[in-house]
Amino acid sequence: MKKNDQVYGVCSGYTHDGHGVVKIDGFPLLVKGMLEGEAGELVVTMAKKKFGYGRLMKRSKTSSQRVAPPCPIAKQCGGCQLQHMSYAEQLRFKKQKVQDVMQRIAHLDIEVQDVLGMQDCYTNYRNKGQIPVGVDKGKTVTGFYRINSNAIIDTDTCLIQSERINAVLQEMRKLFEKYQNAKLFRHLLIKHAFFSDEVMVVWIVRSFQIPHGKEMVQELTAALPFVKSVILNLNVRDDNVILGDKEQLLFGEHAITDSIHDLKFSISSKSFYQVNPRQTEILYGKALEFAQLTGKEAVLDLYCGVGTISMFLAQQAKHVTGIEIVPQAIRDARKNAALNGIANIDFVCSDAADYAKKLCEQGAHPDVIVVDPPRKGCDVQTIDSMVMMQPKRIVYVSCDPGTLARDLKLLEEKGYRTEIVQPLDMFPFTHHVECVCLIVRK
């Protein structure tokens, strides 16, 4: 098999990121946009030792699960990879993706639950937009990066962002064109609190000196009264990190307020907060269900962020301790606990692994441990410390099935058993899937 070879094949499954897999005499070709069961003529675009990439030239058999992508820039944008799949097929793909890593990486003989999908509407679900800003041939461009590129696909609307985020983006584009200062901007970060309908706009800039910045704030907030906060964030780094360390408040408050299941949350520019509020309530409800609290338990919540899961747990636990390394998130978490009148909770600013090790050395034995780590999962020290504390149950919330499977394998080897793997669709149209797992001591 070599580049530019033309072949005919049938798609037999998917990769972890939703590419179709076509095997030609046992050699797998990965084909973007091809659905399972479809057949057609392909051209090889790259051939490696064990697999290659192909492009579908002519489709001779079409899956009943194929739909027309609802977004006009679906083929160029790198954000949503599954718009050509029906929603039912997206959920089937995500379940199989989780099932595959449970068998291949974790070596677990466990039946993954059906994915909990969104009901009815699964567009405009995101409460956060991170939108690159640039200038191309003298014209302001905003949008999203082209696949495998730093080139910006120019757009003023995103299918999965809330309508208010899109409204802010459209207004900011008018201001950029009016004042011709877009070259000083790197990104727009826009957060929308669905319950209160408040919006925060963060200008991520290369300099605190923004010509006509005051006029832009006045015109933005006059045109869109739901904008309750405008913040200037300075980022002079030469990498892909979005937010810098220094900020100035230009308008309103440093935070906006949202609510999930009667709990209020203060959200700042740097707060981690789940991007799909409708599904977040279901996710946290599952975590609470798996924790099986009776009111007598001591709970440890590692990677607690702004305390969202912690406060759900505190309503049914004796005491909760939340651990988070980001100082601003801990400040928000403490503020959130006070905002909701929750006293049986403490928040500690620390690296999760270091604090878990410290608790081990102190002989702590929480009844339940909840972990919601970043995409890289838990490190070995954290897992070892959790095991040494001997909780009855561990509830693991994960945004990456691969690292989740790796960690479940380690926990199995160290005396714990995975009882339930429940995927949940937090990110329709993308290949990402969230999971919450119940793990018990053998």
From TrEMBL:
Keyword annotations of the record: Methyltransferase, S-adenosyl-L-methionine, Transferase
SUPFAM superfamilies cross-referenced by the UniProt entry: Nucleic acid-binding proteins (SSF50249), S-adenosyl-L-methionine-dependent methyltransferases (SSF53335)
The keyword Magnesium appears for this protein: no
GO biological process: one example: rRNA base methylation
UniProt cross-references to InterPro entries, sorted A to Z: MeTrfase_TrmA_AS (IPR030390), NA-bd_OB-fold (IPR012340), SAM-dependent_MTases_sf (IPR029063), U5_MeTrfase_fam (IPR010280)
Family (UniProt): Belongs to the class I-like SAM-binding methyltransferase superfamily. RNA M5U methyltransferase family.
Name of the protein in its database record: 23S rRNA (Uracil-5-)-methyltransferase RumA
Residue sites binding S-adenosyl-L-methionine per the record: 274, 303, 324, 372
Annotated Pfam families: tRNA_U5-meth_tr (PF05958)
Organismal lineage: Bacteria, Bacillati, Bacillota, Clostridia, Eubacteriales
